[in-house]
Fold each of these.
Amino acid sequence: MSERTWRTRALTVGAGVAAAALALAGCTTSGGTDDGGSSSEGGTITIATTNAFTSFNSDTPDANLDTNGMVGYLTGVASDLGLGGFQRLDADFSILPNEDIGTYEKVSDDPLTVRYTLKEGLTWSDGEPITADDMLVDWAINSGYYDDGVVDAATGDVTNGGTVYFTLAGSTAGLDTTAFPEISDDNLSMTLTYSEPYVDWELVNPINKPAHVLAEKAGVSTEEFIETLKSMPEGNVDAPVAPNPVLKAAADFWNTGYDVTAMPTDESLLVSSGPFIVTDFVPESSITLEKNPEYKGDKSPAYDQLIIRFIGDANAQVTALQNGEVNAIQPQPSADTLTALENANATVHAGDQLSYDHLDLNFTGPFADPAVREAFLKTIPREQILEAIITPVNPEAEVLNSQIFLPTDGDQYNTAVEASGYDAFVEPDIEGAKALLAGQTPTVRILYNTNNPNRVDSFRAIQQSASEAGFIIQDAGSPDWSELLGSGSYDASIFGWISPGAGNAALPQIFKTNGGGNYNYYSNAEVDALVDESQVTLDEDRLAEIKVEIDAATAADFYGLPLFQLPGLFADNGSVSGIEYFGGQTGIVWNAQDWTLAG
């Protein structure tokens, strides 16, 4: 799968292709929870996912990968909705308050004011108290309040001598309009006051990394760190100053210090607020989580240990399931995988993912010329790619013609397609591409995941077709593709986005100039204005119009092409109860706290 993730408060997209579209005769297909018979407490549950774990901080651009997000969700140390924060998502993507950590309430509409109150007596997994200090630090990370740097859209470099402290996979949208928070006398409440309405205010989760850990990495006490935040002025890009050494040290660690290539000897990297805590990590092999002994909520699992194995090959996942090496799997769907699951008599849980594959063009190098961008898009054999990869799994699938909506969004999707015209690029137009190139033979380097068969197939189809128009295609594929996104070492990229299923933060993340997921240096002042408007628009009809306008603008700029919506697939061998399909970015682990081993 190899998906990058839209950050929480991300764009809402639909799900709805029936599970039966992925079912084969002989497989048990489940649209809900498989009761698995009687259950017992304790023991170890082992699952397999496609991608390896790389970081204990999935909120940075380099670590914004699905498996990293799964672990962050279970341990509660990510700004996304999770088991250790104030909210999480239910199966239908509705918001569920996590009252075992505290409560949040909107205390005013004008100005928008929201108060977060922690339950008394909560502790991190290392025994340190969870307080408003932790919420204040999360606000500092995600608001950009102290930043005074201006980032060049084409290079990503700070150009005015200022500082951007925290490198976010998402954006500061919404929180960047808040004043310095009000902290209660008992240090358990934080109140945010916005200067403008914020469409996704209910998805703000102010529990991320522990304040005491970041303070330690900055070489100061927690009290000194918090006093630094309280005494620092708001950043001013028109009058940048030298970076604050304490905040800079904390930010530098947050940006890269949680990235790992082995089990950390520094246990502070493992500190958790959720029901799970990491106890072992074998690079490129597995990560092990156990019950957090300090967790005081009601989501502690009945079993003792969860092992997530990283098995990139779908057939190998099925074999491991059949042999009883794992209890459940989340493989990349394919016709071969479904046949193998049929032969293994596995229970299949299937549906649409809130995810899509896409081809993005960098707005530098050969694609700085819009005519070259348009010519390249005319060569993309999207119908051929769909029929080779997705149609054997889901015969009802169709070429995706929106960067924002999915076919299951119904009328909104149809409206977006009509406005954008992405459907003009379904079949290649080689002669039209040649006419635009006018004899040019641009060299195009394409980045993709060489360990993902679907991406390999997409690359080869594009390479063959584009070559017919005169493009010279260089294979820039790599197993380390995610580390190269935004590096400028390629001209086009093939990968997937996956949404959590709630919110609108994908718009600034992906399409705004310098957005945390804007890896292709896209910059359009009109789109920036629309994105900004989307974050303060509470009227649902106008918000839908804005999304359609952004979609159409990306098409007019020859941004790239959406390829197809991905189907989703989980399977178990009957040894675990509670597996239930979920199409959001937390994937199979979304309800891991409810699983039990079957008796």
Amino acid sequence: MQSQDAGPPSPTPSAAGPVVDVGRAEAALVEHYPRLVRLAYLVLPSGRGRSRRVLTAHALVQRALPRDRTPAPPVPVQRAGRPGDPGYALVRLRVLRTALGRGGRLPSPLPRVWGLKLFPRSGGADELALDQRLSELSGPARAAHALRALERLPDGEVREVLAAAGVTGVDAALEEADGIPDPYRLLDSPGFDPCVLQARPTDLPRRRRRLQAASVGGAALAVCGTLLVLPGGGWGPDGAGSPPYARDPAARAALDPGRLTRVPPTAWRTSARTDFSVWPARGDRTDDRALLRRALAVWARPGRDVQVSATPGTPSGGPAGPPRLLYAGTVGAARVVVLYDGLRIARYAEPGDGARGAALDFARVDGADRAGSGAVVLSRTGGTVRYLLAPWVRGAGERDLRRPDSGTTDLGLVDGVTPPLAGPAPEPGPCTSWHVLELTDGTGTRLVTDLGELVPARLTTGRPGEAREASGAKALRTWAPYACSLRAMRSAGVRSVNAWAFAEQPLPGTRDEAVWVCTRAETWRGGGARVLAQFHAPGTRSGAVAAEAESVPACGEREPRVLAGVLWKSGAGEWYLLAAGGPGTTSVRATGGVEGSARGRLLAVRAGAGARADLEGSLEDGRSIGGLR
């Protein structure tokens, strides 16, 4: 790394604007830690290998907090729905400055990993080519590319950030970064995510030789360590928690029920943010320090009697600092505590009769907005669900998504808690109903559904990028035939599910039309979206899944395209291959077991029973699209 790429350490207070305290910067770091580590990983050079680069990226971010109140940088904070506070801008600037100045040198003895090499998941050919191309750029050029692609900043704001980070040749860096094609498509892939890692062993024979040479010294250290920790200081269990792992002041603060953050009941009315961070503490046990201490201890170090679950992509480690208390109370036969640390919702539950055992559940909720933070599941018992609702919810009701004309049953709330509601249809078994929760606040009415996790998923309808709440009469009729397909979305960390009616197709030999709908489940972690293409013929109550896929852009805002086909049997006993593409499809062709083509976005061709075919469509812009399978 050239020394001239890095400039002076920080701006002077007179040029910096508002002062950011350590607490605000810490909150920004915790909330956006994965994004900051990805940014550091992309800016660092790759010369020392991916494992060293991963550890260096984590070390840079973990050491990015200022030591005291620090002037906020005079640079744009963010755009387009990304983090938007001075604390985040300060931490991001410190990460960039250190990454550009340090290069591949590890700035801290921690984190360290012995015996393993850690590196991101392997990407495809495009990811490997992009990684190679980035390695050929200078550090400032890599930083410019990352700010464009990850932070979605225009070039004018990229210049300000790079200048504040000490880069002297800003224009040259931008010009060099212009050589990277398609900057927005690949950097969100797992191949560039240093928080989702694979592990491989280091040189095993060399480790064996070193272990033999160090055995005597290790035995002596073990004896000394035992003597140091034995004298009484209370390293015993806390409720269902196993023995403490550290006596660090920050860890102690996170375990202290007196340090829990409690938000005033009306804070949400004047806050710039409307999410879990402004939920007040509710429940009849918010002052039960013993219960709160047990919940925090189990979160930090769950013992053998604790059942721990987490949605995909959700870390289950202890909180970085004192979390927010959202609820502590008695729910049925259990005592329940709900906490929030800026990234996750954690729910602790223990038997109300004092029996052994506890449950600890985690759900990732980073980036939650008003619509995504309207409810949390408090308990599930006997096929029913109870929710804790956001303070801004004015009314709540229960309705059957399979019966759009059945109306809503109003729910009486007690301190924001609903009575037990019928849960969605269990598996296995018939799906005769699908009960959802209807929430009304000052911005409108929306539907959410329990998919087996702490935070219910929001239901929407409409073309990707133009989706709206699924609470209107037309939206309810759109969802009714496909409600039971939500079974396929369970326990996947789903944030929202959209139903898009992308085509209507005349049925051969009839005057009827079938409807094609694409349901797409977006996740809190960003990846792993689930897509179902469904076909609903008149006279049938439920749609049939014609194709499904995972981690594909189809039917999403980035790629509002889809093509799917199904074998359909007419009343006369004849089989047809029916296929449909979304708007923008100009032709459809079938090959393989069925041959046929058609102009436009609909295809109907006779086929044999059980025939299989490959579908390909052409788009208005000249690109091709393959059929979902």
